Amino acid sequence: MMMMTKKWLTVLLLFILPLITFSQKKDFGIWYGVSAEHKLTKKLELDLSTNIRTFSNAAKIEQVFLEGGLAYELNKHLAIAGSYRLTKNIEHNNSYYFRHKVMLDIKGTMPAGDFSFSCRLRFQTAIKTYIRDENDKYPNYTGRVKLKAIYKTPTFPVNPYVYVESFSPMFSDKTRTIEKNRYAAGAELRILKQHSVEVEYIFQRDYLPHISDINIISLNYNIRF
Questions:
Q1: Side-chain half-sphere of 97: how many Cα atoms within 13 Å?
Q2: What pLDDT, in 10s, does the model give residues 39-95?
Q3: How many degrees, rounded to 5, is the angle at CA 95 between CA 89 and CA 101?
Q4: For residue range 124-174, what is the model confidence (pLDDT) as tens digits?
Q5: Which of 27, 72, 135, 186 would suit a FRET pair with 114, their CA atoms being 20 to 30 Å apart?
Q6: Given phi > 0 = left and psi -120 to 50 = alpha, else beta, which region is 101?
């Protein structure tokens, strides 16, 4: 089992190193998060989270948000979810303004031995309160696709994973079909039965309004009750 864990960690390194090399290292940020999950019924779950995201070499706060939602398990392979996120985001005038975001998800999961593969389709709309031009007066619509693979270590409290996520603008006249891509590798460390910590590296490339890269370290504390 230790050999399998070492092999999987090697795969993670092989995944991360090309991204670090590929990155233009224009910026660096750290994300700090806490999330909680609570089973309301056998199939219905309440999800709550809060997050602080930094940029400019982790020296400035880009956004802070609170999010709450419900997820319903249709069967053991398929679930749907809806959530609302209230964000305070830094804008072009270097002041912070609220944004409202609503998200609808459908997620499919397929176990394969000690691995678990998932695909999440997300439709989201965001409304700004900072109005800089005419386009800011209207909601922004985005489609997101996230593919994730997790290795569930049977005898060791660490579950490594990798994922890729793509963001596409919808109902707009933008020429690009891809707005942003994220590539990530990380691991979940189970501290107690209902508590865990996640550490991951994310490489994010934004294409709009121009190409920019950021390397991110994400730290998240998870509670299930």
A1: 14
A2: 999 999 999 999 999 999 999 999 999 999 999 999 999 999 999 999 999 999 999
A3: 20
A4: 999 999 999 888 999 999 999 999 999 988 888 899 999 999 999 998 776
A5: 72
A6: beta
How far, in Å, CA of 133 to CA of 24, rounded?
30
Q: Which of 169, 152, 156, 69 is nearest to 118 (CA)?
A: 152
CA pair distance 34, 161, nearest whole angstrom: 19
Q: Looking at the domain that runs over 2-224, which CATH code has it been given?
A: 2.40.160.40
Domain extent listing, the chain: 2-224
- Which H or E run contains 155? none
> Can you give the pTM of this predicted structure?
0.87
